[in-house]
Amino acid sequence: MTYRVTLIPGDGIGPEITAATLQVLDATGVAFEWDQQAPATLAVERRGEVPADPVIESIRATGVALKGPLATPVGSGHRSINVALRRAFDLFANLRPVKTVIPGTCYEDIDLVMVRENTEGLYVGVEHFVAIGDDPRAVAESSAIVTRRGCERIVRFAFEYALKHGRRLVTVVHKANILKMASGLFLEVGRDVAKEYEGRVAFNDRIVDNAAMQLVLHPQQFDVIVTTNRFGDILSDEMAGLVGGLGLAPGANVGSKAAIFEAVHGTAPDIAGHGLANPAALMLSASMMLDYLGETDAAQRVKGSVIRAIRDDEVRTRDLGGDATTTEFASHVAKLVRC
Ligand code: NAD
Predict the structure, then answer these.
(1) Sorting pLDDT into bands at 50, 70 and 90, what band is 45?
(2) In the predicted model, what is the mean pLDDT of the chain?
């Protein structure tokens, strides 16, 4: 079987880490037909109107994309294509696993998964200024939109993920003591959904500030964390920090009709074009894609080989303290995948 997948190499280090990842995917023997796309801008309106666009058409047809990072201008210029793609395909679940790869770093044996709600909360962009007197920006007002349907599908996604991947515990992270409605609804729905999984996956909840501290003090007490957009944004970067930073942090944006797999990091313009980029996070994202496609054996081989190359063979790019180039790392991982 050949899988048709949309390929977006992206900007900055994107083309380098994408080429490295394709070399590793090629070594798995799984057959892909890549539909390569290069989005420049993408204007998806807040209410979901989707313009005719080759990238959108491609993902609509394939249902799966492997994506490098895309640059977003700060302050002015076009809006984030990443956010536009999430909106266009209602990619409600942002999945970010973190795992210790290099022993002897701050924490041993970290193996956590963040399931972040990707489409609601404070990030819906419902905000405005209120003028008072001659100050047009005297007050800024932002609304968090949290729906029962949105809470239900993300919490259910977390439990289903836990079941499929043999995880023992789902923790709902919230701030329901203060945000009694926006966060209270999330916790209420979390408790309801958890009852359906009783006896199969354990459940508990943590207030977000305590969760942030506990992640630093005793991260091993967590397993799968599910939370709303803003809390997930902050805690998932904290979790990436527990295992040594962004170079090892893969991610997936998943909806009911499409999924986009990408590393958590950005375009790294400071090192682009020099062969220094670490492609491990995109390779691990590709492993998640293989798992999503049902190619679990190939997924395990890619993930295991990336970990073995870094941990055991000490083939590491500069960000991990080594001197391997992007292509040297790719060739080594591809060799391990073939073994
Ligand atoms: P960044 O992640 O690109 O870089 C932060 C630091 O980490 C830099 O020092 C960089 O060299 C290093 N780094 C990142 N990835 C690396 C890798 N794979 N190997 C080695 N070192 C790596 O973050 P930034 O500088 O804040 O953002 C740059 C651009 O990327 C911006 O335009 C931003 O909008 C975009 N961005 C895109 C995505 C995405 O497409 N999903 C995500 C984040 C940022």
Answers:
(1) very low
(2) 92
* Ligand 1, pocket-test mutation among 72, 82, 265, 276, most atoms within 8 A of CB: 265
CA 61 to ligand 1 centroid distance, Å: 29
Distances (CA, A) of 123 to 99, 117, 151: 27, 10, 15
Name every protein residue with a CB atom under 6 angstroms from any ligand 1 atom.
13, 17, 69-72, 82, 246-247, 262, 265-271, 277-278, 281, 319
The C-alpha atoms of residue 9 and residue 18 are separated, in whole angstroms, by: 6
CA-based radius of gyration for the chain: 20
Which pair of structure tokens corresponds to residue 49? 């109107």
Average pLDDT over residues 107-134: 92
> What does pTM read for this prediction?
0.91
The count of other CB atoms within 10 Å of the CB of residue 222 is 23
- Which pair of structure tokens corresponds to residue 289? 């894609």
Determine the residue of 42, 66, 267 to mutate for testing ligand 1's pocket, defined as the one with the most ligand atoms within 8 A of the Cβ atom. 267
Phi/psi class of residue 73: alpha, beta or left (left: φ > 0; alpha: ψ in -120 to 50)?
A: beta
270 CA → ligand 1 middle, Å: 9
Q: 76 vs 83, 295, 335, CA distance in Å?
A: 16, 42, 44
CA distance 64 to 61: 9
Residue 204: CB atoms within 10 A of its CB come to 12
Q: Which amino acid is at 274?
A: H
| Closest approach atom of ligand 1 to CA 73 | 32
Contacts of 234 (CB under 8 A, 6+ apart): 212
Q: Say which range, 22-31, 70-79, 210-219, 322-331, has the weakest mean pLDDT.
A: 70-79
Query: Cα–Cα distances in Å, from 73 out to 18, 55, 124, 255, 267?
Result: 22, 20, 19, 26, 12
233 is catalytic: yes
**β partners of residue 277:** none
Neighbours of 317 (CB within 10 A): 22
Whole-angstrom Cα distance, residue 95 to residue 118? 9
| CA separation for the pair 218, 251 (Å, rounded) | 23
